Amino acid sequence: CHSQGKASGELYVRIVVAARRALSLQSRDSVRLNDNMIAIGLGWDLLAGVSAVDLDASCVCFSQSGEVMMEESVYFAQLQSASRAIRHTGDEKEGDEDLGQGDDEIVLVNLGAVPAQVAALFFVATVATEGRSFCEVDTARMRLVEWKSGIERCRFNIAQQGKKHTALFMAR
């Protein structure tokens, strides 16, 4: 676009920043959600000199009678639920793909589309590398984010809680 004259004037910029601190989730804590679309992110960074450790994020669905509903659950080998309400973005095998900045695996959930027969959703982090545990990971965290607003509602520091475990529940 060519201008006939030179633009002049003043430009005023106003920026509003609202700092929000995510809850650091402890056992038996709860958090209220304002959005039907949520994301569970799993991120991890390896200890210096340690070979790759594969962590996996999963969402396991349960019926009212306590039975696992595999068709609605998602994990590294089943990336979408039958209802399409829950989706896994894919398996990351080494962590730290984003240089420690965020989530290596993400599970997206449209809570409004989850079938009525699903009574509970369990979000789980597991160590998929045989013979390894969370103690071989420098940092590991799962976080719950309201998808539309991007607000992180809670964070669970797995490496601090996990120690020699190979699986931990983040949220129900």
From TrEMBL:
Domain of life the protein comes from: Eukaryota
Domain TerD positions: 25-171
CDD domains: TerD_like
Secretion signal span: none
UniProt-recorded name of the protein: TerD domain-containing protein
